[in-house]
Amino acid sequence: MLAPLFLVYPKNSARTGCLEDLKLLIDWCKKTGNSILQLLPMNAVGSHRCPYDALSSFALEPSYLHQAGRKRVYSKEFKHFVEDNSYWISDFALYKVIKRSQRNRPWYEWPKPYKGRDAAALKDFQRTHADEIRFQMWLQWQLHEQFKEAKRYAKSRGVFLKGDLPVLVSRDSADVWAHREFFKLEFAAGAPPDAYCAKGQRWGMPTYNWEVIARDGYRYLKEKLKYAENFYDMLRIDHVVGLFRIWSIPYNEPLENKGLNGLFDPRDENQWEDHGRRILSVIVENTKMLICAEDLGIIPGCCPKVLEELGIPGNDVQRWVKDWNVRHDFLEPKEYRRLSVAMLSTHDTTNWPAWWKYEAGTVDEDLFKRMCASRGIDFASVSNRLFNPKLSKHGRLRWLDTIGSADILASILGRNKQDILDFAALYENTFYEKEKLWKKLKMAGPMQEDANRDLIEKALRITSDSNSIFAINTIIDLLFLTGAFKGAPYKYRINTPGTKNAKNWSFKLPISLEELLKDKICSRIKWVSSRSS
Q1: Does residue 346 sit in the same domain as residue 474?
Q2: Are 337 and 385 part of one and the same domain?
C-alpha cells in the first residue's frame, strides 16, 4: 500500500499525519493483508510542500514530528547523531537559520558572503546564532529517533517500510548551496512532451554534474543511502531514467514553454546505458535496502535492460501495461513483467476511478491540437466529427463511437493514411479502451461510464493476480471500496505533474486512521491481497 503520511490523520485531530501515526498505518496494513507500506519522500520541504522538490536530500520534514522530545541537546546520543551525520547536518542547520534570517529568501538571493559561503562570514554567523543552529540539529535528531522507532514497530508487525529517493533536489536547498559543484545550475530538469503532457514538464530542479560527483567517489549518493537505511527496508528511485539521461531545459527558457525546448544530458545516446548502469551499480552495491525503480514515461531500451541486469523491479501501471504495437489492448496479468511492482495508479496520476471516467478512451487535447497544427489540419473543423463533446473533460478528448477504423480517421482528417501514422497509432491505442478493459475484467452487461465497487475490485485483482513480484496500490484506490469518497472522483488527487497550485500535496482522506481500522472493508481488502502469490 502507498500511503503518503500527509494524507492521514488521527481521530479528533486537525493536524497532518506524524511519525507516531505510522504505527496506525502499519496496523492497518497488517489488518488488510498488506506487507509493504510505501511512503512518499519524507524530506524537509519548502512552502510549496512538494516532497520531490525538497530543501535537503537528508533532513526530514519537521511537521512530521509527533511532539517535542525530552532528551537534552547535550546528551551523548545527540552528540553521536551529529557525528554520524557530519556530512550534511551542519550545512543543513546553518542553511535553515541563515534562510530564516533572510526572510526565507532562496540562498541565491542572499548577501554575497552567505550566498558564496565566505568562510569568515559563516563562522561569524555560526558564533552569533549557535543556539538556533543547534536547535535545528536537535530537531532532526528527534525526527530521526521517532522514525527509527516506527521502523522497529513495522518490523514487529511484519510490515516492510518502502521509502522514496527523489532523483533531484530543489534549486533552493542545502544540498545545492553546500555542493554547488555537483549541479548544473544553468539547466532546469523536466520531461519531454508525451501523450499525457503535450508540452512536457518543467520541474525546475537543477540537473546533476555526475562527472564531479564521480570524482568525489559518489560520496554524496552513498551518504543519501546511508541515511535512508535508518528508516527503510526498500527504496524506490524516483524517475530512474533520469540516471541514464535527464531532460534538461535551459534555465532562461520561458516558463510557458514547459518542457518543449529541452535536450537530453548526456546528449550522446550511446553513453546512456553505461551512464545509468554506473550510477545504479553504485546504489545497489552500497545499501542493504531492496532497490526498486520508477521507470515510467518515455523510456529508452537501455533502461529496462539495465534494471533487469541489476535485479531492480520497475513499475507496471495497469492503464499503461498494453501491447501498443500489435493487439492495441491491455496485457493479461500473467503477461506483466516478473521484475516489477504492479499498481493501478501512482501519486502523480488520477486515481483509477477518475482515469476510468475521464481518461480511458481519450487523447490529450493539447497534444492532438499540436499534431493537427504540424500537418496543417484545422482542429476546429475536425474535432466535432472525431470526438464526443459530452464525454470530453479535463483536457481529454473522447472518441466518437462512429470512428470505427484508422481509414475513417484518415478520411476525416483529409490525409492519406500513410501520412498520419502517428494519428493512427494514437487512435488504435485509445479507441474503445474502456470497452476492451470492461471485457477483459469479465464485467457483466453493457459498459458503464462510472466505476462501481465491483469494477474497482476487479481492477485491483489485476495487480494481485499479476506476474509481478510486488503489488502496491494507493490508499486512495483501496478506499474507493469503502464509499468514503463522494462526488466526482477527479478531485481526489495527490498531485498533477508540471503544475504548481494549492491542491497539490494537500489532499486529506475523508476518514481518520482509527475509523479505517474499524471499517468492515478491511476484510475485503485482505481477501484481495491474499490472492497475491
Answers
A1: yes
A2: no
pLDDT classification of 71: cutoffs 50, 70, 90? low
Residues 329 and 473 in one domain: yes
Query: What residue type is assigned to position 67 of the chain?
Result: Q
Neighbours of 412 (CB within 10 A): 17
C-alpha–C-alpha distance, residues 240 and 314, integer Å: 9
> 49: which 3 cell numbers?
510542500
Cα angle 345, 348, 349 (rounded to 5 degrees) comes to 45
User: How many domains, the chain?
Assistant: 2
Q: Is the Cβ–Cβ distance between 238 and 167 less than 8 Å?
A: yes
Tell me the CA distances in angstroms from 56 to 45, 91, 402, 438, one per residue in order. Answer: 8, 10, 53, 44
Q: Would you say the pTM of this structure is higher than 0.85?
A: yes
Q: Pairing between strand 246-250 and 263-265? A: antiparallel
The CA radius of gyration of the chain, in Å to the nearest whole number, is 24
- Give the residue numbers spanning the domain of 464: 1-34+313-355+457-533
Q: How many CA atoms lie within 13 A of 263 on its CB side?
A: 10
Helix (H) or strand (E) holding 165: strand 160-165
Question: Does one domain contain both 376 and 414?
Answer: yes
Q: Which residues of 83-115 are buried (b: 16+ CB within 10 A; e: fewer)?
A: eebebbbbbbbbbbbbbeeeeeebbeebeeebb
Beta bridge partners of 244: none
pLDDT at 12 over 90: no
* Structural domain contains residue 390: yes
- In the chain, how long is the greatest CA-to-CA distance? 78
- Any domain includes 375: yes
DSSP output for 459-488:
HHHHHHHSS-SEE--BHHHHHTTTT---S-
Q: What is the pLDDT of residues 26-62, one digit of tens each?
A: 999 999 999 999 999 999 998 889 999 999 999 999 9
